[in-house]
């Protein structure tokens, strides 16, 4: 595993530095690995140890990021100075294709995030239309809600679900399965939280 010093994060912002097309693609980031493929989406789990970071790289596809742990990071986007950020678990961010960046973990715990790359352009970010709907694009909407123990998620249609904490899922058929925090699965919303605790759930509904 490679440790990248601060100088690596500053690369793109410096005069004469490499431009985005010259940088490695996101597929070469060694700190992430694929955990899901379907619905026109590829999902990766990103894990950055304390004090380490990803190399500067480019994203050629629209990207939805769900942060699974809180903490502090330093990010550098192409042409910009380093930016320190304090993130809360469950934060969701979206960027359209065509940007380059690096991320360093400034905290004392492993930084974990789920990255969703879309096969096709999803359009700009738009306002959500419901109380739990964080935002939409022309291609999907993101909901962030608490599912109480013994209650159903609700809703219909093809969706992806990402729990921020471990949950036991009971499907309409009666089948039960555990889903660890940061995993992802596809299905309708007619499942019930069969655990004893409420769970925060981020879902992506395709339009």
Provide a quick synopsis of the model.
The chain is mostly beta strands and 207 residues long. The chain has one helix and 18 strands. It has a six-stranded antiparallel β-sheet with strand order 10-11-12-18-13-16, with no helix packed on it. A five-stranded antiparallel β-sheet has the order 1-2-9-4-7, with no helix packed on it. A four-stranded antiparallel β-sheet has the order 3-8-5-6.
Describe the protein's architecture and organization:
It is a single chain. The strands form four sheets. A six-stranded antiparallel β-sheet has the order 10-11-12-18-13-16, with no helix packed on it. Strands 1-2-9-4-7 form a five-stranded antiparallel β-sheet, with no helix packed on it. The termini are far apart. Strand 11 and strand 12 (140-147) form a beta hairpin. Residues 1-18 have low confidence and may be disordered. The chain has one helix spanning 6-9, and strands spanning 32-38, 41-48, 57-59, 63-67, 71-77, 83-87, 92-95, 99-105, 111-118, 126-127, 133-136, 140-147, 159-163, 167-170, 176-179, 185-187, 192-193, 199-206. It is globular, with a radius of gyration of 18 Å. It is an all-beta fold. It is 2% helix and 45% strand. The relative contact order is 0.18. It has two domains: 6-118, Sandwich (Jelly Rolls), CATH 2.60.120; 126-206, Jelly Rolls (Sandwich), CATH 2.60.120.10.
Number of domains: 2
Topology order in helix (H) and strand (E) letters: HEEEEEEEEEEEEEEEEEE
Shape: globular
CATH C-level category of the largest domain = Mainly Beta
Strand order of the largest sheet: 10-11-12-18-13-16
Largest beta-sheet details: 6 strands, antiparallel
Tell me what the CATH architecture of the largest domain is: Sandwich
CATH superfamily descriptor of the largest domain: Jelly Rolls
Report the span from N to C terminus.
39 Å
Provide mean pLDDT, rounded. 89
CATH topology of the largest domain: Jelly Rolls
């Amino acid at each position: 595993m490679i440790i990248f010093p601060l100088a690596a994060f500053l690369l793109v912002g410096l005069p004469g530095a490499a431009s985005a097309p010259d940088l490695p693609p996101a597929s070469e980031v060694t700190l992430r690995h694929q955990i899901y493929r379907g619905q026109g989406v590829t999902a990766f789990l990103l894990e950055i140890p304390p004090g380490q970071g990803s190399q500067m790289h480019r994203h050629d596809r629209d990207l939805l990021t769900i942060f699974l742990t809180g903490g502090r990071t330093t990010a550098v986007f192409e042409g910009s100075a380093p930016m320190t950020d304090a993130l809360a678990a469950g934060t969701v961010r979206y960027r359209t294709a065509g940007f380059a960046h690096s991320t360093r973990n400034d905290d004392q715990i492993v930084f974990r995030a789920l990255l969703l790359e879309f096969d096709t352009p999803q359009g700009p970010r738009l306002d959500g239309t419901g109380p739990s709907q964080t935002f939409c694009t022309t291609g999907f909407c993101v909901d962030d809600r608490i599912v109480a123990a013994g209650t159903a998620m609700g809703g219909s249609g093809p969706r992806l679900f990402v729990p921020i904490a471990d949950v036991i899922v009971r499907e309409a058929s009666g089948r039960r399965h555990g889903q660890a925090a940061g995993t992802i699965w596809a299905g309708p919303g007619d499942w019930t939280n069969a655990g004893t605790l409420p769970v925060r759930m981020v879902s992506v509904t395709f339009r």
